[in-house]
Each structure stands twice: as structure tokens, then as C-alpha cells.
Design brief:
The complex is a heterodimer. By secondary structure, chain A is an all-alpha fold. Chain A is built from four helices and no strands. Chain B is mainly α. Helices cover about 75% and strands about 0% of the residues of chain B. Classes of the chains: A mainly alpha, B mainly alpha. Chains A and B meet through helix 1, helix 2, helix 3 and helix 4 of A and helix 1, helix 2, helix 3, helix 4 and helix 5 of B.
Chain lengths: ~110, ~170
């Protein structure tokens, strides 16, 4: 446990604000990716990035508050993300079978 | 020392997520995001959340990214797909993301956070503490998440089954 104490002493140099800033930046990059890319796989990757940003923020709040409940929430968010990726990739394979591409613009049957 | 670590890890995370966006080949995007996830795991270790760091690496690098790579190789895409066609849409996407960041940053700047000291209890993220929390307060959600996984598994299998009877 000596290592952990030393680590905690060093953490005083890093305020909580830095962690919040980092997760805000990562979240915005994820939003940008969802809007910008045409490739469905990269859109999924951006969703993963956004979930990660939220996880990082929850974990840092939990760690700075000395409250383990936030980290339990991060655990559940990971569970949901894993299930979401499995379902999403299955849908992606189905879309590929039907339209022969994973381009978002090929999904315009509901447009008009 | 820890500040250098923090800034290095966050620079790697931001740079790799940006590279992920501007990569033409989806395979490289997945690999860059993997590097980004590893640096986030390093940040979890800095936060004294060892259990989360290990789970993060196992779940994301071990399961999710492998699934992405598997699907990418399975689909065998030969045409590298690129950005949205018009430059207007790309500009709009960047503007939207940037203004969302500005909004979040303004909200964050306005908030008067209680000046929290650095973590004082070192066992917040240990396996022992998190296990106690997960199996006492969060026992029912924990059990329900296994049902969620089971239903996700069944859903995936049913969705990707070739329907021979056409009905």
C-alpha cells in the first residue's frame, strides 16, 4: 500500500479540473466524428470514444470524492457498451448484406 | 512527475482520437482508438482505480476492439470510404463539435467546483472495495447485467441467421 500512498501524494499536483477538461475534449471529438464520417464503423468507434470520456469523468469524480459508487457506475457503463457494440456490429453486418456497403448514405430508404 | 505523466497520457489520448477521425482506412482508425484506450487506462491507474484500469483493458482492448477488427476483416471492404461528400457538411460537423465543446467548457468554467483535495483514501478503487459495493448496493443491477448480456447474445445470433424459410 506504500506505492498507493505515494501515488496519492503526487496526485495533489493534478487538480480535478484537468481530468474534466480532458473528458470534455474527448467527448467533443466523439461528437465531431459521428457527424463527420460516412463509414458506419468509424461512427461506432466515435460512440465508444464518447462513452469512454464519460467513464473517465465518472471515475475521476469518484476518486476525488473517495466514493467507490462512481466506479461501480463506470463498470455498468462498460457492460452496456459491450452489449451495445455486439448488437451494433450485428446490425452492421446485416446492413452490409442488404446494401453491400457500410456507407451511411446508402441508408436513405426512410428519407422520403 | 505525475503532472508530466498526466499531460503525456492526455496528449496521446487526444492525438490518437483525432488521428482516428482523419484516417482514411477504418482498420487504422480502430488501431488508433486502441492506443487511445490504453492511455485512458493509464489515466485510471493515475486515479488509483486499478480495478477499472484492468477491466477497461480487458473489455475494450480484449473484447470490443477485437470484435471491431473481426467484423472489418469479415466484411472485406475494398473501397476505402471517406468523409461526408460535401465540404459544407464536414464544416458543419466541425462547427457543431466545436460549439458543443465551447458550451460544455463555458458550463464547466461557470461552475464553482468545491475545491476537492486529491484522493485521500487509497483503497477507493481497489478490488476489495469495489467488490463490496458491487455485491451489496448494486447486487440487483449486477445480476440484471448478465441477463442483458444473454439477451444481447441471443439477439445477435437471431439477427445474423440466414433465413432459409424466407419468413
Amino acid at each position: 500500500m506504500d506505492n498507493a500512498v505515494a501515488l496519492s501524494e503526487q496526485m495533489r499536483a493534478i487538480p480535478l479540473q484537468n481530468f474534466i477538461m480532458l473528458s470534455l475534449i474527448l467527448f467533443s471529438i466523439g461528437v465531431m466524428g459521428i457527424l463527420m464520417r460516412r463509414n458506419l464503423i468509424v461512427v461506432f468507434l466515435s460512440i465508444e470514444l464518447m462513452l469512454n470520456a464519460i467513464n473517465l469523468m465518472a471515475a475521476s469524480f469518484s476518486s476525488y470524492h473517495n466514493d467507490p459508487q462512481g466506479q461501480a457506475f463506470v463498470f455498468f457503463i462498460m457492460v452496456v457498451a459491450a452489449a451495445e457494440v455486439a448488437i451494433g456490429l450485428a446490425m452492421l453486418v446485416m446492413i452490409y448484406r442488404n446494401t453491400k456497403s457500410i456507407d451511411i448514405n446508402s441508408l436513405d430508404k426512410l428519407k422520403w | 512527475m505525475s503532472q508530466i505523466f498526466f499531460y503525456a497520457l492526455s496528449a496521446v489520448a487526444i492525438a490518437c482520437s483525432l488521428l482516428m477521425l482523419f484516417q482514411r482506412n477504418a482498420m487504422y482508425s480502430v488501431l488508433y482508438l486502441l492506443v487511445c484506450f490504453f492511455s485512458v487506462a493509464g489515466l485510471y491507474i493515475m486515479l488509483n482505480a486499478q480495478f477499472l484500469a484492468i477491466v477497461h483493458i480487458i473489455v475494450y482492448a480484449g473484447a470490443i476492439m477485437v470484435l471491431f477488427l473481426y467484423v472489418l476483416m469479415f466484411l472485406n471492404l475494398n473501397t476505402p470510404s471517406i468523409f461526408t461528400k460535401s465540404n459544407m457538411l464536414r464544416l458543419a460537423a466541425i462547427l457543431t463539435g466545436g460549439s458543443l465543446f465551447l458550451l460544455l467548457f463555458a458550463a464547466f468554467y461557470q461552475t464553482e467546483l468545491v475545491q476537492l483535495p486529491a484522493p485521500t483514501v487509497d483503497t477507493t478503487g481497489s478490488v476489495q472495495t469495489l467488490g463490496k459495493v458491487l455485491f451489496n448496493e448494486f447486487l440487483i443491477p449486477f445480476e440484471l447485467s448478465s441477463v442483458l448480456f444473454l439477451s444481447a447474445m441471443v439477439g445477435v445470433i437471431i439477427m445474423n441467421k440466414k433465413d432459409k424459410s424466407n419468413g
